[in-house]
Amino acid sequence: MDQFYKRFCSETFDANGVLSTFSINCPKNFNFAYDVVDMRAEETPDKRALVWCNTAGEERTLTFGDLRRLSNQTANFFLSQGIGKGDKVMLILKRHYEYWYVLLALHKIGAIAIPATNLLTVKDIVYRVQTAHVKAIICTPEGNVADFAAQAQEQCPELEQKYIVRVPREGFIDLTAGIEQADDHLERIENTENDEMLLYFTSGTTGNPKMVVHDYSYPLAHIITAKYWQNVDPDGLHLTVSETGWAKAAWGKIYGQWLVGTSIMVYDFDHFVPDDLLHIIEKYQVTTFCAPPTIYRFFIKEGMGNYNLSSLKYATTAGEALNLEVFRLFKENTGLSLMEGFGQTETTLLIANLVNSQTKPGAMGKPTPLYHVDLIDAEGNSVAPGEVGEIVVRPCETGKQYGVFCNYHLNDNLYERTWRDGVYHTGDTAYRDEDGYYWYVGRTDDLIKSSGYRIGPFEIENVLMEHPAVLECAITGVPDEVRGQIIKATIVLTSSYQPSEALAKELQDYVKKATAPYKYPRIVEFVKELPKTISGKIRRVEIRQKSAKQK
Fold it and tell me: In 335-396, where does DSSP find H-type helix?
């Protein structure tokens, strides 16, 4: 059994084998690229690290030895181009295998990596370059990314360099050729655990994206993510569904997984097709899998009985709340319980159903040992079991709180508002039952206050999603003179149903029977699609604004 990760942590377990305490032993100069990837390359150079394929049927496997060599070459090429410590470099590389050794190279030279999605527009790129002072951008040759980067550079003199992989292009530095010609020997460039390493632009449901910064110690907090939540097998193959531009890729496609020793499966695609992804799991014998509930919903609709998924030993989910119906049907099809977890771009895994723990379908689980999580009311007091409160993180008493972001880049005021009254405010709400399990309710801004009741949107959405007519839905509050707010359901129907007053009444009655009567939606609106952020989060604020204009 691979014990490499134990070099960086200490842990104990309860009588049931559930992780009960966990502490991080971080070297002062810890660098994931040198101290994990290169060290693994030293000890097991031929061990498979990454398996990549794309929709065209191309395949590539990289060992830890390959990653050390390629990341050294990439680092040397960047240094020759004047990229160094503290420089901010944006990566828009989709799911290309280059992403992994380019990211490692940036870690090695002390540059700050800014992973970004290929869905960005020119305006999005300009905003990110100007607010983060990006020096260089690395582009996929696919789609409009390079065109948009070129247009953005015209408005951003601080963007000095544009790189492109695979396909040379005028006006861009050919990164692929540069790597091939570079020396594969690199002297270690020192850093400290507190140096800035990663910057993520979050896509919140209101306002401009925040710039979340993590330091070099951040990867170590993902040992729990990979080892004790995703339950990855050191001899297996792990697949997390995420484009590299999102923080979920850091959760499931590099740090914790390589610390624990598993191989990473990467399927490079543009448009999600359930049949294709199920075939990938089947063909490559994926052993552990992590995806948002939406992916599992589509798997179930596709019909999972036609695929041989016997290699799959464990499945986890995060990114949005898990509907009970999805949990039930996935277990019915595979025999596996979906192990839910909760965290943010600003953190690692805060709450989860860890390995060997007893689950309650629909519950996020319990706080992980790395964090002191609590639920508080508007006055900052801890709430009693059964009461809804905001999820907060109290600071670590023994020193540094590993896994929690360092700052919001160039926004101390926002950082201070988030870390206020001595705790980190997540902006998410939940309630805790008598057994200590946390149940998600919704964002603080999304809570509905009607006739004295505090109502979370997810509970009602959960019920509606069980009805065969509902493909997607969002619950919001609409101002009302008598009740303060009334509940509105905005619904996207499945292809088999058409909007009608009779269907609206049927759905209202369906909710009444499944929940307390005061929670049923008094307004039902059918739409073709829900407004979403670039990362796919439902913009309830936009629905509320539209509803206000309609009144």
Answer: none
